[in-house]
Amino acid sequence: MKKKEQDSSSEVSEEGSQEETSPPSKGLSLIDFVLRIVAAVSTLGSTIAIATTGQSLPSFSQFMRFKAHYQDLPTFKFFLVANGMATAYLVLSLALSIFHIFKTGAKVTRTVLIILDTIILALLTAGASAAAAIAYLAHKGNAEANWVPICQQNNSFCERASGSLVGSFMGVLVLMLLIFLSAIAMSRK
Question: Mean pLDDT: which of 31-35, 109-113, 141-145 is highest?
């Protein structure tokens, strides 16, 4: 008789724990949607800023000009592509984010978003980090390698490139937050 009572009490506790875990709230899904918009806007701004970065300076001769454009550096090209891909992905992922607002218990699509968010986070971090290294060299130079800083002459170019880096790293932070938020949403099930 005692064993039956213990079994029935364990069934109640198991059912009670199942009732405690519920699908993520619509609030989490709304936050996910808003964060995706913020990340898309920051990476789009970064893409536009780096794509329009360029400066020409006259030299001591009238026939020669010094030019600085993002196309001159493969690292900035990669940075542009990484930000463009992140922007496109974030805009497309808004559809799944809207789907999660209406159907909060969707587990498979949340898992897909976590995986794709992680891939895009890695791509965006790689592009932003590589561009940050080049921007640092442009600002400070490297005396051991005889690389002179170019930002003293090309101030506009360097300011726009640095501003683009800020937008990209903001996108990285928001993507990290999105992954964390998705993990919380998945753990609530």
Answer: 31-35
